[in-house]
Amino acid sequence: MKNLEKGTVVRTVLLFISLVNQTLIMFGKSALPISEDQVNTLADSTAFTIITSVVAWFKNNYVTGKGKLQKEALKQKGLTK
Fold first, then answer.
1. DSSP string computed for 27-67
2. Is residue 20 part of a domain?
3. How many Cβ atoms from other residues are within 10 Å of residue 77's Cβ?
4. Global pTM?
5. Which of 5, 14, 36, 48 is 20 to 30 Å from 21 at the Cα level?
6. What is the structure's pLDDT at 31?
């Protein structure tokens, strides 16, 4: 994990917390204080949230070998931090 940027780690941790909370709500457990109506609303969107979150995380972070090569190419051209 030494090659991961701080932002990538923060986004990943927040994503993990969000997904755990969504899963707990799905199974009737409440990790965060949420009303019954909110639980029903959140349960309806859980699958959508999980899928879009994973896709967004994967697409916006350099986690694959190809992504790491792209990041290096961008750095060499001065197009990223």
1. TT--SS---HHHHHHHHHHHHHHHHHHHHHHHHHS--SHHH
2. yes
3. 8
4. 0.42
5. 5
6. 63
